[in-house]
Records
---
Amino acid sequence: MKLVIDANIPAAEHCFGHFGTLTRVPGREINAAHLRDADALIVRSITQVNDKLLADSPVRFVGTCTIGTDHIDQAALAQRNIDFASAPGCNAEAVVDYVLSSLLTLAERDGWLLRERTVGIVGVGNVGSRLQVRLTAMGVATLACDPPRADEEGQAGFHSLDALIERCDVLCLHTPLTREGPHATYQLLNAQRIGELAPGSVLLNAGRGDCVDGLALRSRLSGKGDITAVLDVWEAEPAIDAGLRDLVALATPHIAGHSLDGKLRGTWMIQQALARHCGQPSEFTFADICPPPALASLHLQHALPPEDALRLCMRAVYDVRRDHDALQRQTQHHGMHKGFDDCRANYPLRREFATLNVQLSGEAIALEGLLRGAGFPCSHSEDF
C-alpha cells in the first residue's frame, strides 16, 4: 500500500508506517503526479482535494487530520467511490486556548477586563461550544449564534447574528466556509455588518478567512480605527493582504489549532479511520503518541488579580504574541506567500492548557474555579 502524506503531519511514520510505503510531500505541493500509484492520501487543511487532483489515481481513501473539510470536494470523492474521514474536534481545545490567550492579551493592552465583556460566539460546533463552556465557567457572559443548530434544536439559547452585533462587545467567528444554501457563511461579516460593529468592539476570526470581507474590515480599521481585530484566518491564504495584516491587533498565520496535542489527535483519528477502511484492528491509543509536557506543573501560593493569574498560567503554556511577531518577521523578510507558509511549516512546539497542572496553596486556592474554568487542571498543595 502506498500512502501520500502531508510532510507536516506529526507521528506519520509511527501511525501509518505499518500500512505500507509513505511518501511525504509538503501540503501545497501535492499534485496528481504524486497520486498516480497511491492507495491513500492523508492531508491537512492546505491541500485542495478535488477531481483534478484525483484524476486517474487509484486512491481509495482520503483523510484530513483537521476539523475543517471545506478543502475537500466530498462529492468528487463519493463519485469516485473513495472513502473519506476527517478529525472533528481534534484541535478544538487548542483553538479555544488561542481565543482566550488573544482576548486576555487585548484586555491587558487596552485596559479592560474580560469578565466585564459580553462575548458573542458565531458557530457553536466543536470549537464554539467549548469556548462557550469555558467562558461561562470563567464568569464571562456569552451569546450564541448558530442558525443550522437553531433549525435542528429550536431557537432556545440561540440569537441572530445581528443581535450579537448589537449586544456584544466581542464577536468570535468559528464557522465553516459554505458558499451556498440558506446558511451560507461566505462573507458572513460583510461591509454592512462590519460597519454596524460598535466602537470599541473586538472582532476575532478563527474560523475561515472568507467569512469576513477583508476589504471592508481594512477600510473600517484604517478609517475610523475604532474597533480591534484578531485574525488567524485570511482571504487568499497564503498571499494575504499586507495592509490588513498591519492594521490587525493580533495577526497569526492560521495556527489557532496548531498545538502538538491537536495535531497528534488528528493524526491518531485518521489512523483509526484508515485501519477501519483496511479492515485491520488498531492497537494505537492517543497516549502512545502524545509525549509528556516540558512544563507539567506550576505552583501559585499567593492571591493575584484574577486576570493576571490567568495570563500567568496561559503564557506558561502558550503566548499568542509569539505567533503575531513571527508572522510579521517572516513575511517582511521572505515575502508574504513564503513567510506565511514558513510560519506554519516551522511552527514551534506548543501544548494545550490542559497539560499544565496548577498547584494552589494559601490565598491562591480562591483562584481554583476561574483556572479550572479556563481549562487548567488544579490541585491543592501544602508543601510551601
---
Amino acid sequence: MHRTEVPFAKGHGAENDFLVLPDPDGRLDLPAAEVVRLCDRRAGIGADGVLRAVRCTATPEASAEEAEWFMDYRNADGSLGAMCGNGLRVMARYLVDTGLTPPGTLTIATRAGTRQVRVPHRSPDFQGEVTVGMGRPRLPGPDGIDVTVAERRWPALHVDMGNPHAVVFVDDLAHAGDLRIAPIVDPAGAYPHGVTVEFVIPCGPAHLALRVYERGVGETRACGTGACAAVAAALSWGRQSAAAHYTVDLPGGRLRIAVLADGAMELTGPAEILARGTVNLGRRAAA
C-alpha cells in the first residue's frame, strides 16, 4: 500500500503521552484504524492519543473566530475526544516552540469549546510548565452511579469537564486493581459513549492522589481533566475544604489545580516534546 511521510512530534504531560501531527492546512484525514496503528506501542510509535494541530480556518469543526488553532484529539482506540488537558498543554508547547505561534496566551479551539492556554516562553529544550483554563466543572447527574472492580463497589459522582468522568473515593489506590479492563459502571445507560473513571484518595489538605482509567485508552499515567474532576468531586462531597490551590499526584507526576473565584479551574503541569521526525501514513490519511 502506498504510504506518505508526514512530520510528527512525540510529547507528554506528566507521562500522559501523545503524538502531535501538525496539519495547518487541514490536509490529513485520519481514519480510526490509522490512529490505532500510530498509538500501538509495539507496531506503531506508541501513545495515549493523537493531537492533530490544524488551523481553525482549515476545518469545519472549529467555529470559534477568536482561535487560530483547533485540537483534533483522537483516543488511542481511534475514537474522537472532546477535551484533553494534558494534550492541550503538549500541543501548545509544540506550537510555541516550533514558531507556529508566539508565546503568551493562546486561544485554542476544541470539541468542548475554546480554551485559554498560557505558554510563558519559547523553550530551547521543548519543555516547561504550561497552564490551561479548564472552565467550570459541571455536575449534571444523574445520581445513583456506581463503579465496580472485582468484589468492590463504590458510589460515583458524574463530573463533566468537557468530557465525562465518574469519580470514586477509595481507601487504597490498589483497590482499583490492575485496570487492564474497564471498570463496570452502573447503570449501563448512564454513559452511552463511555466514561473516564477516577479512583481518588485524599492525602491531606488540598492534596489528592488518583489513578485513572481513560475511555478509549485504558489506564494512563495522568489525566488533566481527571485531576480537575477529582478536585470538583472532593469539594462537592466535602472530602476537601475550599481552597484556591490543589495538588494532585498521579503515577506519572504532579499536576496543580487553581480554583478561581467563579469556580473555573486552571490546570498547570509539565509539557515536554520528546522527539520529532516523520512517520508513514496510508494514502487515505495523507490525501
---
Amino acid sequence: MSDRILTVPNAISLLRLLMVPVVGVLIFSGHMVAAFFVLVLAGVSDWLDGVIARRFDQTSRLGKFLDPSADRLFILVTITGLAYQGTIPWWLVVAIVAREAAVGLCLPAMARRGYAGFPVHMAGKAGTFALMYAFPLLLLAHVEGTVGEVAWVVGWAAALWGVFLYWVAGLLYVKQFRDVLTGRAVPA
C-alpha cells in the first residue's frame, strides 16, 4: 500500500465523488432515469478504478479511503432522494444509516488501540454490491411498462437482501470491536 496520491485510480475515484451531487440533484428534481445512467456510470468507474489499481500496482491509502467513501455517499444520497420522492420508505433509510452509525462509532476507539479500521467481510462487500445495484434499479422502476415493473421487483429484492447482508457485516464488525475492547484481538 503506497502513499501515492496522483494515480489513475485515485483520479477516477475523485471523479466518482464529483458525481455524487449530480445524482442528488437529478433524484431530488425527479429526473430518475438520468440519475440511473449517472449511477451506472459511477458503478462502472468503481469497477474500473479497482481493476486499474490492482493490475498496475496503483493501490494507495488515499484510494482505500476514497473508494468506500464514494460508495457510502452514493448510497446515502440515493436512498435519501428515493425516500424524498416516495419510492422507498424512510425506515429503509434509517436501517442503512443506523448500521453505518453503529459501525462508525466504533472506529475512534479502534484507532486509539492501534486499529486502522475493520477488515472487510464478504457479507459487507456483498451487501454493498446488492445495494449499489438495487438503488439504480429502483430509479429505473420509474419507467412505465415491463422494464419498470421488473426493475421494481428485482430492485426491492436486492435492496432487502443488501440491507440484511449490510447488518450481518455490521454485527460482525461489532463483534470484532468487542474483541478489541476485551484484548482478544491483535492489531495488524
---
Amino acid sequence: MQSERHGVVIGAGTMGTNLARLMLRRGMRVTVLDVNAAGLARCHKALQEEAAFSQQARFVTAWAEVGGCDVVVESVTENLELKQQVLAEAERHIDVTTLLLTNTSGLEIDALAEGLAHPERFMGAHFFNPADLIPAVEVIPGPSTAEDSVERACDWLRELGKRPAVLRQGVPGFVANRIQHALMRECLALLEQGVVDAEALDDIVRYSIGIRLAINGPLRQRDLNGLDTHLNIARYLYADLENRTTPGPLLEQLVADGRLGRKCGQGFHEWPEGDAHAYERRERALLERLLAMMDDAEE
C-alpha cells in the first residue's frame, strides 16, 4: 500500500541506501539526494530490486529536484562540520513543519543544531545497520526539540516498523555505542593479555551472553539471575576489568597495519575475496529469522 508520506534521505552510502530501502518497503515515496553522482548510481542500482522502485523512488543531486516532503533524514559521513553544512542547506529548502533528523552515531545533537533556524523540529535518529532490518532506533532530542516533534518522529518510526527509544538526555555515543565500546574494550584487553584468541572469544559471546541479550536485554537478564548475585560478582570483579581511557595497542596496530576488517580482507579474522558478500547475505538471512522468532515470542 502506497503511503502519502514523502521521505528524503541525504547521502547515498550504505546506510542511506538501507534507509531508502526501508521506506520503500513500507510504501513511502523516497527521494535520495547526494551530490556524488557515482554514489547515487550505486544506490539506484542497489534499490532496483524493490517492488515499489519505479513508482516511488527518485535519485537527485540538487534540492531543486526534491519538492515538498514530510521527513528528511541526513545520513552523510560522520563529520560535525559536514553534517552542519548539510543540515543548514536542507533547512533552506524544506517547510517549517518538516521533520529534520540526523542519523548520527554519537555526535552531540546541540552541536549539530547550531545555526538552524528551527531546531524545534530537529533531533537525532540513530538507526543501526542494516537499517532496513534492525528494529531499534535511538531518538535523541536536542535542548530545543519540541515534544510534539519527538512524538511525530516516533509515530513515523513505528509506521516503518521500528522500535523508537527516546533518550532523556544526550551523551557522547548515546546508549548503544557506549555499551558496544565498553564490551569491545574488555574484548581487546583479553586478546592482548593472551587469555583467548579471536575465534574463541567470538564463540563465547555469540553462544552465551549474545543469545540471552537478544532475548532479554541486559537489565531483565540481571533481574532473572538475581541482583544480589550480580552485586556479589561485581564486588570482586570490577577492580580487574579494563578501564583504560585511550584505545589499546592491539587496535592501534591492526589499523596501522591496514588490517581494517572485511573491506580489506583482514581484521581480527581473514576475509577471502568473495566471502565477505556471502557472509553479508548469510547475516541478513539469520537476522530475519531471529527477528521473526522474537516477534512470534511477543505475540
